[in-house]
Amino acid sequence: MRVLITTWAWPSHYRPLVPMVWALQAAGHEVQVASQPRLSTVITDSGAVAVPVGPDLDHHEVRAKAMRGLPLSSVPQAPTAGAEMADWQPERRAKVARVFSVFTAYSDAMLDDLLEYARWWQPDLVLFEPTTYAGPLVAAALGVPAVRHTHGVDVQYQARDVAAGLVTPLARRLGLSEVDLLGACTIDPCPPSMQVDSPVRREFVRYVPYNGPAVHPAWLQPPAKPRICLTWGTSTSQLTGEGTFLPSRVIEWTRDLGLETVVCVTEADAVTLREHIGTEVPDVRIAENLALHMVLPSCSAIIHQGGNGTLLTAGHCGIPQLALPQLPDQVFHCKQMVKTGVSRVVPAAEASAETVRAELAKVLHGEEYAEAASRLRAEMGAQATPGEIVDRLEQLASR
Question: Measured between alpha carbons, how far is 153 from 148 in angstroms, rounded to an integer?
Answer without folding.
Answer: 13
